[in-house]
Amino acid sequence: MAGPVTLSQVAREAGVSLATASRAINGSANRTVRDDLRERVLATAERLRYFPDANAQAMARGQTTSIGLIVHDIADPYFSSIAAGVSLAAERAGLAVTLASTQHTASREPRFVEVLTRQRARAIIIVGGRLDDPEANDRMRSSLVDFRRSGGSVALVGQPLLDVDSVVIANSQGAAALARALHGRGYRRFAVLGGPAKHLTARDRRTGFAGALEELGTPIDPALVVECDFTRDGGYEGMRALFAGSPDVDVVFAVNDVMAVGAIAAARALRISVPGDVGIAGFDDIVTLRDITPALSTVRIPLVDVGVTATELALAPPAADPRQVHVEGTVVLRESTPERVV
Amino acid sequence: MAGPVTLSQVAREAGVSLATASRAINGSANRTVRDDLRERVLATAERLRYFPDANAQAMARGQTTSIGLIVHDIADPYFSSIAAGVSLAAERAGLAVTLASTQHTASREPRFVEVLTRQRARAIIIVGGRLDDPEANDRMRSSLVDFRRSGGSVALVGQPLLDVDSVVIANSQGAAALARALHGRGYRRFAVLGGPAKHLTARDRRTGFAGALEELGTPIDPALVVECDFTRDGGYEGMRALFAGSPDVDVVFAVNDVMAVGAIAAARALRISVPGDVGIAGFDDIVTLRDITPALSTVRIPLVDVGVTATELALAPPAADPRQVHVEGTVVLRESTPERVV
DNA sequence: AGGCTAGTGGAAAAGGCTTCCCAGCCGGTG
DNA sequence: CACCGGCTGGGAAGCCTTTTCCACTAGCCT
């Protein structure tokens, strides 16, 4: 009685066979259904409010219509922007997105991969910097092998560590370009809020920045590269720690915007004027943070595009070897690092 | 050969029947499997890297393990915070979340409901203020009827318009409390960046605010309630429009934080000092915006909790009549609206 | 010792859909 | 006029699980 309407009901009601009803509704390739029958079926389906069961279709066709998205934290604007891109691209491709937010817990990642393996998702998009944790990466790699054996493809946004197609953000180059731009504005005494030691995205940005400074002949004092969380609070605490030593610094590079915001808050608490006493720069150019005061110098990453690209990559016909798409950032200098009058 | 491992393969390999293998693996109720057999099956499954096909399980059990989440824009921190809550609650319940982001296009909503109907999702969580658009709401209601006929339940975050369980945010009361607090701080000449006319959340906040002012004996001039988009740019343009008339105003209430940020940016462009010349307050207390300057007075809504609550509501055993859970906001006064010396 | 019950394994049905394959009918062709 | 091929409808197999139902064994009670 109750329960969803099935195709059999539609077929019976329309006076045709199951096969014909199916063909009428999803217009099978290389088979045609006589016009009057097709219309009758369509009208009946509409009248009965028939909606094909995607699970049954998935079984019959051996293919689902969903892709998985794994992020560290969907509430973080970095990830939610990329998620917006994934969602957009998925909709274009007629696919549904299954969202998994790991809350920064590495052990959840393979678990979610397994969930998506069971769902037989067409593809998984993994977003978020890898950690320098061989064991965790191995576990991930092995989950992904299982997933791909079950027919899915994978794309990664971040370091191309997992032997899968990757969208690689030019963290190192972006940070280097930022360093040169800051140097060009007259800054000479640099410090870095460097994020977690094992966080590869943070590391790439740190080393890119430091490398460029080295080349410019103003190498950074390693003591002025402080380790901290990759979050707003990390930036806050890092800044406090840094200035506890009253260092000789005219600009601080936080390895992401959210941390830079924390750093600015800390500066305020410490009565250090930004940019009067010290300039601050971030990375990512998070949209929501474009209006903070002082406006933040940063490296713009086209996050939504990154999401779209990753999705397209995952959905493209598989290649023999892992592909890599490189995405460049653009340095955006704003008030937080004005021209420095020496 | 290729393709995912099936239960039959496991059963054959372990030398038991399909039935036994199934029972061994998901420990069927009121049936036991002899220990040695169970272990053999489990070991084989592990060795073969068997992952049950969720689609097939859904068919056989007549129940899926996914819930749908429909938001206006996943990149907006308001929605992504709620999404974080939904994701959390879903994980606890062992369910996967299918994400749909409508990009503020009302016509996409029923389409996504249909997608979720086909997936036979257990529940749908719809987040986002309704519009005062009877036709769109009717279409939505009718999609939801189809969805529920196919066995799913629905919860809504927003105005309880769609005859479903709802988490109702006390927009009007929150705005009223904010108005009283601002009045208490000495403000008397109010303006409102009111959002879109038909946007019900915006409307509730506007009218709650205006109502309280009326009661306080300082009614707001309707000309000083400006209509604008519900976004950062809306706030920016609204503020410009408002001050184009050089109004006699000492505080501006933007109906959400993102708009308030836009308003502050506009004030800066117009060389209006905040809070020197005019105070600004928002609504939502978006985490990412807690560090802007000046720190924003606002009404804190526990967004993550809202997501959790909505999910729990949707997953609770169905009730005869639509339930409503009310969520109160808390006024948080910060630097953007200091005590006003008259 | 015979009959029960409890415990357990397995065959088979069911769940909704797609698609292969067969059959019927049409018109056209030699 | 018989045959052939193209078009189209329908029966049935197959996708992978769960679960019902049946069969069988072993142990217990009277």
Give keywords.
homodimer; 342 residues; alpha/beta; 434 Repressor (Amino-terminal Domain); Rossmann fold; 3 domains; six-stranded parallel beta sheet; four-stranded parallel beta sheet; 12 helices; 12 strands; 15% strand; elongated; DNA-binding
CATH fold assignment of the largest domain in chain A: Rossmann fold
- Number of contiguous helices of chain A: 12
Helical/strand content category of chain A? alpha/beta
| Strand segment count of chain A | 12
Beta-strand content estimate of chain A:
5-15%
The shape of chain A, in one word, is elongated
CATH arch. level architecture of the largest domain in chain A: 3-Layer(aba) Sandwich
- Helix-strand string of chain A: HHHHEHEHEHEEHEHEHEHEEHEE
Termini separation of chain A comes to 83 Å
This entry's quaternary arrangement is homodimer
Rg of chain A over CA atoms, rounded to whole Å, is 26 Å
Q: Biggest sheet of chain A: strands, sense, closure?
A: 6 strands, parallel
Q: What is the CATH C-level name of the largest domain in chain A?
A: Alpha Beta
CATH H-tier superfamily of the largest domain in chain A: Response regulator
Low-pLDDT segments of chain A:
none
Biggest interface goes to: A-B, 59 and 61 residues
Mean pLDDT of chain A: 93
Q: Helix amount of chain A, in percent?
A: 40-55%
Q: Into how many domains do the coordinates of chain A divide?
A: 3
